[in-house]
Fold:
Amino acid sequence: MSCDLAIVGAGPAGMAAAIEAAALGLSVAVLDEQPAPGGQVFRAVEAAAGDPALAGEFLDAGGALADAFRATKGIAYRPRTTLWHLDPDAGVLSVASDGATAEIEARRVLLATGAQERPVPIPGWTLPGVMSAGAAQILLKTAGAVPEGSVVIAGQGPLCWLLAVQLLRAGVERLTLLETGAGGALRDALRAGGLWTGRRLLAKGVALMRETRARGLTVVRNVRDLRAEGDGRISTMRWRQGEREHAIACDTLLLHEGVIPSTHITRALGLDHDWDETQLCWRPRLDAWGATSHPAVAVAGDGGGIGGWEAAAAGGRLAAIEAAHRLGRLDAAARDARAADHRKTQRAALALRPFLDRLYRPGPGILAPADDTIVCRCEEITAGQIRGAARLGAAGPNQVKAFLRAGMGPCQGRMCGTVVAGLIAETRGVSMETVGALRPRAPFKPMTVGELANARPEAMPELTA
Amino acid sequence: MFRRRPEARPAPRDRLVEVFVAGRSVRVPDGASAAAAVLLSGAPAIRTTPVNGAPRLPYCMIGICFDCLAEIDGVANRQACLVPVAPGMRIEPQAGARAARIEDAA
Structure:
């Protein structure tokens, strides 16, 4: 099939972009790995309707956006479809779905591939029973499921509070929040400003904290040196607070230190990226419309820098408007007029980011953990081994990959890449820009030979929203 | 270990899907993933690592970490968190790396 605009990802940015592009008369294809629209933030929002634990913004705003996406004519929506190769010069997307591959031709491509949670490498984080906070939230969204026994959320960021509220509402009785972060972060964050423009988001956060207090959440602040222990499964969670060591029994540990853009595909395309010292992550270099360093490829949403779903949806609309302009459907004046409201929405949604980025800035151990910590989960390579390779002369993560196999396993460096680079930067005393990033290659996801051989364009589901 | 909340998510019988995790029957809401089925089953591990043989369960649930690799309906190395459950699906823990040849699997 062929279209004007191919959108990768059906989260807030992808859905909003598709709705806008269709309204502008573009033919649109939306590919998404998940079986239903929503992305991660609104994952399974249709199936979760009515779940009281998820009441509020998730069901209301997420449900409305998914409904609008489904109701829009002119969008070829392909769920359960993985992009495994993209040739932006030729405008060809190679996708895998249901054991077969197919190609989609597109005049322009919008990557709305979103964010991933920042890996939180602590001793014991590979033990069964330890997972990311977002993972537990996805179990709640997709299956209505909650962890049993003593549950610990450890780390920092808005999701910790949101997840705590949702788990408490869902009947989790023994829940503890171990909040990392140094004292003084709040003072620093307050200086960032943006509180008045961002007051609605701020109020949302304060309401979450109030609700956790009313529901009896145990909160321990200023914790550090997290350590998960257990034989075959986590059983004890240890941490330090001040000079004292503490421990509690723990059946499920949920880690979270914020989210970072998923740059796997933008990196594989060789697009320009910048290290964001505020958010401690790489982000593709974008202009105000989401245009990348490749003329046919744009990025919208958290994949271009973390801003949350409202900023992502606005960014999706802006990217769609720009796509229509570049395809000759809108002149510059009409483009700018149509963009004005979305730009305002985007600005308001981003106003609180400087405050949040400073308040929840990960500690140094997140990018450069202690020597005994596994960093590459796939190949089980420790921070100490990576420091050793850096001392031996490995200048960047691609060299460490050759030395140690870190980044060579099935996740293709999605989990360890930034931490490996952080360890090299620390050991060699150089910047993250100097160290650089892993260079992933297609296929973006491991595939079987059978899938590759099974090129059946007619096998692609023709599901239209 | 995870548990469903039938009181909050009243799934009529036809919206629960029966799958088998390491041979054990588990009923999972339609639309949830094979990885969710594993966590609801209480299985101690979905795989052991190729390097040290350490047990793992799903970590990220969004297709990033690859710790949920499992043998699903006879196909090894599948990302269980990206495979929606289907009636009768068989999800088997995977020991170490996927065997590349039939004789290795024996």
